[in-house]
Amino acid sequence: MRNTITVFFNFFLITSLSLIPSLLSLSSDPCNPKTLPDPKTLISDQITVLINGYSESRIHLLRSISATYSSSPSVAAVLILWGNPKTPLQTLTQFSQNLTSYFGGAPISILRQSTDSLNSRFLPRSSITTRAVAICDDDIEIDSESFEFAFKIWNSHQENLIGFFARSHDLDLSKKTWIYTVHPDKYSILLTKFMILKTDYLYKYSCSSSSNSKMPMPMPMPMMKEMRNLVDQMQNCEDILMNFVVADESNSGPILIESKRLRDHGDARNEEREGVSGEEGVERESLRRRRREKVREVGLSSRRREHRKRRGDCIREFHRLLGRMPLRYSYGKVVNSVGEQGLCLKGGKLVFCDEQIL
């Protein structure tokens, strides 16, 4: 039995380690239908998770996140799309070795991108064997229940984008221009922090200007190439462009899902309090926090304004190139459970009537 396990482990390790070097020489056209699975053979009861990785400092977090996705029975495979060409091969090889310790779940693979283009997140891939894909960032942790629920909702709305992070476009009447914003009661854009979409949309996004394309495209083929070029130029807005593609195809807005537990490690509002002990340590941490808050108030506000401006520029340019505005508003979000809405007086407090007071 031990020999069998050893042989299996060695085979798995060799297979994993050989993955990265083979991709370095990959030169086949991802838009060539002959290199992609037959759409009729794609499975619908499982999903492929595509995680965008770039920073070596997040490898420890990425290892944990990919293992969580891998453990889900709804996941067919986890593909880590490494978008930093400058990362040493040895680093990714070591990362790959560490991933081999997770047995029993869906396979986890590291695919090293040849460029840092954000458009690469949406390339069709021969290793995708499912009708749906989840596009994720490497700093987003989602509880298993919410993930399974989001996939369940996608199965009932396969033409729509499904996700947890919503934004909106709007028309600034005073300036007569499109802007990128957040509304409290409506949304039209889902972010690539996490989104679920039909695998076909990868092809529509990436291959609309390809001579190999055999699929009917609602968007003008030359325009899609120009819009992808804008994403490269701005190093931003690939999520907005995918929202354009899906809305233009489905003529409907995205669907926002309520999560049970979701951690965004990349949110600048996170506050770390590592190594704080004793009264003196707490006092030093309090002083550092006040300083950070002052810097954050100025820095975040400035960065947010610049960020929204750049993404507003993308919306305006996508609209100009396409000649129409396909984005559609959606309202509300889908919840996993329907609890009691009424309030009752229990223990001197107003609480939901079905809540137990001990």
TrEMBL record:
Annotated stretches, region: Disordered: 261-293
List, as start-end ranges, the regions of compositional bias called Basic and acidic residues. 261-286
In the record, what terms sit under GO molecular function?
glycosyltransferase activity
Give the signal peptide as a residue range, or say none if absent.
Answer: 1-25
Q: In this protein, which residues make up the domain named Glycosyl transferase?
A: 47-337
Superkingdom assignment: Eukaryota
Query: What UniProt keywords apply to this chain's record, in alphabetical order?
Result: Disulfide bond, Signal, Transferase
Q: Name one Pfam family in it.
A: Glyco_transf_64
Any single GO CC term annotated in Swiss-Prot or TrEMBL for this entry: membrane
Q: Which family does it belong to?
A: Belongs to the glycosyltransferase 64 family.
Know the name of this protein?
Answer: Exostosin-like
Q: What organism is listed for this UniProt entry?
A: Macleaya cordata
